[in-house]
Design goal:
Blueprint (H helix, E strand, L loop, with lengths): L4 E3 L4 E4 L3 E2 L9 E3 L4 E2 L1 E2 L5 E5 L16 H16 L8 E6 L24 E7 L3 H7 L5 E11 L4 E10 L14 H11 L9 H6 L48 H10 L10 E8 L11 E6 L2 E10 L13 E7 L4 E7 L41 E2 L6 E2 L2 E2 L8 E7 L1 E6 L6 E5 L4 E5 L3 E4 L9 E2 L5 E6 L6 E6 L6 E2 L18 E6 L5 E8 L8 E9 L3 E4 L6 E9 L5 E8 L2 E10 L2 E4 L10 E4 L5 E4 L9 E5 L3 E6 L6 E7 L6 E6 L12 E6 L3 E4 H8 L7 E8 L5 E8 L2 E8 L2 E6 L9 E6 L2 H9 L3 E2 L9
Parallel strand pairs: 6-11, 7-8, 7-9, 9-11, 12-18, 12-19
Antiparallel strand pairs: 1-10, 2-3, 2-10, 4-5, 10-11, 12-15, 13-14, 13-16, 16-17, 20-47, 21-22, 22-23, 23-24, 25-26, 26-27, 27-28, 29-30, 30-31, 31-32, 33-34, 34-35, 35-36, 37-38, 38-39, 39-40, 41-42, 42-43, 43-44, 45-46, 46-47, 48-49, 48-50
Helix pairs in contact: 1-3
């Protein structure tokens, strides 16, 4: 029968100090997700493995390189580790070298003969003797230890037919002449070529001092006082091949329950998994109904918590994008043993599942009959051990804890930087790591609406227009897109008299704001002194279909300026200007084309950042000069200083509700919205509250985002109930969305302060002000819950 092969390539990398790709047990690639069938090798006979014929490593004289025979022996050793797992039917053997299948020595110049090319089947193990395959072919750091993947499969059966492993010889340590400490890299990477993902049980504890149970829980149901390198699973996404002090030797053997159950799940021996115990269940969101995919689950034997521990990722055998499956199954458990089951956040690595980037609930134990989604009644640190028996699985669902009425925290994808929220709160717009512009909704997730290079990607309040930059021969130029057309329209830069050189600082112009009618505002770069004088200045402009790009008025002795944003109808534009005599950014408002210069001799007013849809209220920040406070401006009342959270640093308003009563932004020690994140936090302001720390406000509400640090709030919906901002999680900078439909208030009935209880009210300045005025406090009443 002719094979219907196709590439299923997935490259998984590990390095000493950098890790890419992780999962908790389970397969890398699924063949039939609906029926939960992964890709597998045919192991009715041993999988054939072929080794490189070139030198294992290239090192300068007089050092003696390790001969291929030693490396080939380590390959055979690693294969035996997987083959000898008693509950697995997997088997593989070294069948020959590359010459036996017609391949030459593989190096950085000809690696495409193996990677991307279909050969004679089996697994090819390449020795990257000088790290040029890593650097020149894959384009990764030469510190990467290895890369491996199953690559070709018979699509009619899901049978893997070919795979490869690349071992970077240049990273083996001096003195490790028999590759004993480097053997862990071989065993690990060969595991990937069998279609194994990473494991997540003990490695994070050993390498990162992660909690030995749910974070901050101290009264664990097992003795977890000590852990050694021998407890680290082979497929953990981190390895240190240092002789004597590293983990490479320990991770070269397949003797941890997590690794053995993972290979056995893929390639079960006769009678498995029925010969062992198992736990089967589902991770359910705090709404009590919807499953959540991508949550790491660990079961630890209370009498042997490290050696007998198995992990799984909820939904890892389904792998449907944006699914709410949430199911998991932990196999290979010791019959008769008792296991503590809990959710665990991933410290290092990504996932091949359709995963959440942040678990919106604290880590918690399964709590038996007391298990629930209510953080007020379910003690997350209380464990009910599960006794397993051979045969059918024990069923145990974990409901993630939540506090009723608490605002919802939703992290976005890594690198996603939101800049705008639509008036109705349904749409968030922004850009991903200076790349494509995106549109996000809670229902549909991410949609790419532009190809970059993104600058300050903007979205209109009605979600119909986006502003960005388009690459041209001159440099990036301001552009806009009407949603649904798919075509970006470059906007002509300003023309000046006499003619100016355009394209200073590598840019022509940049978009910063877009109105509901498609008008765009921003900055155009002008060289007013000619091409050799270096006189590059930014000039604020507004573009409309009728008038094209038009400069905005500047003050006397105006030097540079930029328009940051605009009202919904484009009648009010806000931003900053500076002058030759004062180069600090000074607040500027252009109403119907007329400049309102906010800076006065009596009060320095920094740049304006946002405005209400009708232009009646403007907010901004002070940077570079006192008083370094956030401010609010109205035509009737002028500038009102809003304060700052800390006696040091500064504060700036960035997000504002349509009525101007709710304001948010940043407060800290930095001077720009895109600067260093030192001591920066977002704030919430209303006239009654004043300026408060948004993080502490959310924590008091019962909103959970441990391990995620809020950095700034950048935009909000018209009613102030949907916010977008930027923060930092375990995987770096990313955006977030907060839904504040309702909030918790500790309500004290008049005359009965001892009868205080938590109630839920709609979020809004007027509702909060009313409750604060008669003595209520924001948040859950003290003692009602503790995460």
């Amino acid at each position: 029968m002719q094979r219907s092969n196709r590439s299923i390539l997935v490259a998984f990398l590990i390095a000493i100090f950098a890790v890419i790709g992780a999962n908790a047990g389970g397969p890398l690639q699924m063949w039939n997700a609906e029926q939960r069938i992964p890709y597998r090798w045919d192991v009715t006979s041993p999988v054939q493995v072929y080794t490189d014929i070139g030198p294992f490593e290239i090192i300068p004289a007089p050092n003696v390189p390790i001969p291929n025979e030693v490396a080939d022996g380590v390959v055979a050793f690693a294969l035996n580790q997987w083959t000898d797992v008693p509950t697995s039917s997997f088997q593989a053997q070294v069948a020959g070298d590359f010459a036996s299948i017609g391949l030459p020595d593989i190096n950085g110049t000809n690696a495409a003969l193996v990677v991307g090319a279909e050969n004679s089947g089996g697994i090819t193990v390449v020795y990257d003797a000088d790290a040029r395959i890593m650097r020149d072919f894959f384009g990764v750091s030469s510190s990467v230890l290895g890369i491996a993947s199953p690559e070709w499969a018979d699509e009619s059966t899901g049978t893997i037919t070919e795979g490869w492993v690349v071992i970077n010889a240049q990273q083996r340590w001096v003195g490790d002449d028999l590759l004993k400490s480097y053997a862990g890299v071989f065993t690990h990477e060969l595991g990937h070529s069998f279609n194994l993902a990473h494991s997540q049980t003990n490695g994070a504890i050993a390498f990162y001092n992660d909690a030995r149970g749910p974070a901050t829980c101290t009264n664990l149901p097992y003795n977890a006082a000590s852990i050694t390198t021998n407890d680290i699973e082979t497929m953990y996404p981190f390895i240190s091949p240092r002789p004597t002090s590293g983990s490479g030797l320990a991770q070269s053997t397949v003797d941890q329950a997590d690794d053995m159950s993972a290979i056995s799940d893929l390639y079960p021996a006769p009678g498995y998994p029925a010969s062992k115990g198992s736990i089967k269940g589902k991770i359910v969101r705090s709404n009590g109904r919807t499953g959540i995919t991508g949550v790491n689950v660990i079961a630890r034997n209370v009498d042997n918590p490290f050696a007998d521990a198995v992990s799984a990722m909820s939904g890892d055998w389904v792998r449907v994008p944006s699914n709410d499956d949430g199911s998991f199954e932990l196999t290979g458990l010791t019959p008769g043993a008792r296991y503590a089951l809990y959710t665990d956040g991933i410290v290092q690595g990504g996932f091949p599942t359709a995963q959440p980037l942040f678990i919106p609930s604290p880590e918690e134990f399964y709590n038996g009959a007391s298990e629930s989604n209510d953080a007020l009644t379910d003690n997350r640190c209380a464990a009910e051990p599960i006794t397993v028996t051979a045969g059918g699985p024990v069923e145990a669902d974990i409901e993630l804890n939540g506090v009723k009425g608490a605002p919802r925290f939703i992290p976005l994808a890594p690198g996603a930087v939101p800049t705008a929220v639509s008036t109705d709160g349904k749409t968030v717009g922004g850009s991903v790591s200076n790349g494509p512009v995106f549109k996000w909704t809670e229902t549909d997730g991410f949609e790419v609406v532009g190809n970059g290079p993104a600058g300050q990607a903007a979205m209109s309040r009605n979600g119909m227009y986006f502003a960005d930059q388009t690459a041209t021969a001159q440099g990036p130029i301001a552009s806009r897109l009407e949603y649904g057309t798919g075509t970006w329209q470059p906007l002509p830069p300003l023309s000046v008299t006499p003619p100016a050189i355009v394209g200073c600082s590598g840019q022509v112009s940049s978009s910063w704001g877009v109105a509901n009618n498609g008008a765009v505002t921003g900055m155009s770069w002008i060289d007013t002194n000619g091409p050799t004088a270096g006189g590059c200045f930014g000039k604020p402009f507004v573009w409309t279909p009728e008038a094209g790009s038009v400069p905005l008025p500047m003050p006397v002795n105006g030097r540079s300026g930029r328009a940051n944003n605009m009202s919904a109808d484009a009648s009010t534009i806000v931003g900053w200007v500076d002058q030759t005599s004062n180069t600090n950014r000074q607040g500027a408002i252009w109403q119907n084309g007329t400049l309102i210069h906010l800076n006065t001799p009596a009060l320095f007013v920094g740049e304006a950042y946002n405005t209400t849809p009708d232009g009646s209220v403007v907010v901004g920040l002070n940077a570079g000069a006192q008083p370094r406070q956030a401010w609010r401006w109205t035509s009737a009342g002028g500038v009102q200083l809003l304060g700052r959270l800390y006696p040091f640093g500064e504060a700036g308003g960035a997000a504002i509700s349509d009525d101007g009563k709710i304001i948010a932004g940043l407060a800290g020690s930095t001077s720009r919205f895109t600067s260093d994140v030192s001591a920066r936090k977002p704030f919430l302001w209303t006239s009654q509250l004043g300026m408060i720390d948004l993080e502490q406000f959310l924590i008091g509400q019962g909103t959970f985002f441990e391990g995620f640090f809020l950095n700034t709030a950048v935009s909000m919906s018209g009613d102030g109930r949907t916010w977008a901002g930027v923060g930092f999680g375990l995987r770096g900078a990313t955006g977030y969305v907060i839904k504040l439909d309702k909030i918790n208030v500790c309500h004290a009935p008049p005359g009965n302060p001892n009868k205080a209880g938590t109630i839920n009210i709609p979020f809004g300045a007027d509702a909060m002000n009313d409750h604060l005025a008669h003595g209520d406090t924001l948040g859950v009443c003290p003692g009602d819950y503790e995460y």
